[in-house]
Structure formats: structure tokens, C-alpha cells
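Researcher: Quick test of sequence recovery. C-alpha cells follow.
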């Protein structure tokens, strides 16, 4: 597959990641088919206000991406599994005035609350106002399985555990990884589970699957970071900051996907919060003589 100049790709499911992968491949001259029961415009529904990301008509009419109900995987050079997401009900929740818990996606529930100035359902462990009074809703998502590549199934490098990437941006980043691999432009980095909740003035971001090891907490430059680590490695990060710094935190997340010690470069020119919070786990381990095991 590496280095192929023109390939036929089947992507099963339509959401932000699969739409972006289709865009990248079609712009590169490849033949792309999206199998989905719901051909529709794609939104970043977990970033308030929900942003229109890619229009189905743009993919179909200008980039010549085919939308089909079913397809034979054997007729394609590569098959990528994704997921179908029912976006309409999620977009409508932003117009409501009550607290809503999305059963399968508590972090999206937090975004819904924080973006509307409401308390967060108490099933979400975040240091904000929480409530046990809320309505419940479901996340309509169909995950496709069986293909050698997937945007909606991943393995968290920090814990070694499988998970379903729920954040639209993480699926977009995985799509970029797959594009590189399919086109022979480089290998895929490790996956790190990404969660975020974004409000009017505040955001939270979690990196990793589970809290493990010792905790260090620092506040530097407007960011507060809780870093859990063991044996010199950071296992889980929780970052809190002003909404304007959300993009900066995303840069750090992608850096950590490429290199688990990327926080060493979090200096510009002062040491950043992730550097301060995470470095102690590494240096303590180095002092103990365990550095050769990392």
C-alpha cells in the first residue's frame, strides 16, 4: 500500500474523522467511497457552538466521493472502519435550557452544561458545580468493525486498554495518521485517549485512559495540570484552563502522541504547566536508577 499513487478506499461510517480522511484522499486523487446510512453534513458537535466541518455535498459533488448504503470490501485496495453518528439530536441539545446526561458520553454532557452556564451531571468527575438533577439522552452511534484500519476503535498507549474515541478531534487526528500510512508518508503514532469539555470561559482536557500512579498538581501560566505517573512515565493528564488556551492544550496532546516525553519541550520561554507537572515523575524515576527501563 505504501507509495501507491492512486488507490480505491472504502470508508464505513460518516463522522468528522471519516469525512476528513475522505477529503485528504480525494484531494490526493484517490477514489473514495463512504458507506453510510446517513449521508449528511458533518459537524464538530462537541465544540460549542457546534461547527460545520465538511459538507456532504462538497465531498460528493466537488471531490467525487461516492456515498453508498452498502459495498463489497473486496473491491477496494483499503477498507477503513469508522462510525455513523446521529448528529441531529446532539445539535438540538444545545438549544435546551436543562442539564442533560448523555449516557454513553459524559464528557459531551459536560460540554453541553459548561457552554450553557449550567452545572455538570454528577457522574462526571470534574472540579466544577455538579448536580444530581438532569434529563438523560442517548448517543446514537454505530461502530463498524472488521477492517484492518479503524477510526472508532483504538488502543490507549498509556494504559494498553482498548477504547472508542468519542471526541471528534481525536478521530480527525487518527484520520490524519491513517492518511499518512495509506499514502506511504510515515507511520502512525501511538493513540492516547482524548477527552475534553469546553465551556464559555473554561475547558478541561484529559489525556489517557485511567489515573494510575502518583499525582502531581501545578498551576502555571493560567493552566492547572493534574499529572499521574508511575515508573517515570505519565499515565494520565487532566488539564484545566481558560477556553482561549484550548488550542494550546491540543498542541501538547498531539505532541505527546508523537513522543511520550514531548513535555520536555514545553518551554516557551518559561516552563509550561505540563512540563512542571510531568517532569517530576521522570526525574524521580531517573534518580532511583530505573531510567534504563523506560
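Model:
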Amino acid at each position: 500500500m505504501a507509495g501507491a499513487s492512486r488507490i480505491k478506499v472504502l470508508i464505513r461510517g460518516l463522522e468528522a474523522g471519516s469525512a476528513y480522511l475522505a477529503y485528504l484522499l480525494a484531494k490526493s486523487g484517490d477514489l473514495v467511497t463512504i458507506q453510510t446510512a446517513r449521508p449528511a453534513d458533518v459537524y464538530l458537535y462537541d465544540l460549542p457552538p457546534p461547527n460545520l466541518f465538511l459538507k456532504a455535498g462538497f465531498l460528493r459533488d466537488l471531490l467525487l466521493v461516492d456515498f453508498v448504503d452498502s459495498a463489497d470490501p473486496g473491491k477496494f485496495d483499503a477498507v477503513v472502519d469508522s462510525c455513523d453518528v446521529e448528529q441531529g439530536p446532539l445539535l438540538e441539545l444545545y438549544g435546551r435550557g436543562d442539564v442533560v446526561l448523555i449516557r454513553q458520553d459524559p464528557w459531551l454532557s459536560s460540554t453541553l452544561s459548561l457552554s450553557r452556564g449550567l452545572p455538570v451531571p454528577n457522574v462526571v468527575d470534574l472540579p466544577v458545580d455538579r448536580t444530581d438533577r438532569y434529563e438523560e439522552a442517548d448517543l446514537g452511534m454505530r461502530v463498524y468493525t472488521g477492517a484492518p484500519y479503524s477510526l472508532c476503535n483504538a488502543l490507549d498507549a498509556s494504559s494498553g486498554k482498548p477504547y472508542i474515541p468519542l471526541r471528534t478531534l481525536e478521530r480527525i487526528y487518527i484520520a490524519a495518521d491513517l492518511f499518512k500510512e495509506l499514502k506511504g508518508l510515515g507511520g502512525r503514532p501511538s493513540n492516547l485517549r482524548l477527552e475534553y469539555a469546553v465551556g464559555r470561559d473554561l475547558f478541561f482536557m484529559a489525556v489517557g485512559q485511567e489515573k494510575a500512579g502518583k499525582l502531581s498538581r501545578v498551576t502555571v501560566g493560567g493552566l492547572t495540570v493534574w499529572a499521574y505517573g508511575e515508573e517515570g512515565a505519565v499515565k494520565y493528564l487532566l488539564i484545566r484552563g481558560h477556553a482561549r488556551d484550548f488550542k494550546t492544550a491540543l498542541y501538547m496532546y498531539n505532541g505527546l502522541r508523537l513522543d511520550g516525553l514531548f513535555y520536555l519541550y514545553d518551554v516557551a520561554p518559561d516552563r509550561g504547566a505540563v512540563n512542571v507537572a510531568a517532569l517530576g515523575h521522570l526525574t524521580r524515576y531517573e534518580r532511583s536508577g530505573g531510567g534504563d527501563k523506560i
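Residues 211-293 form one domain.
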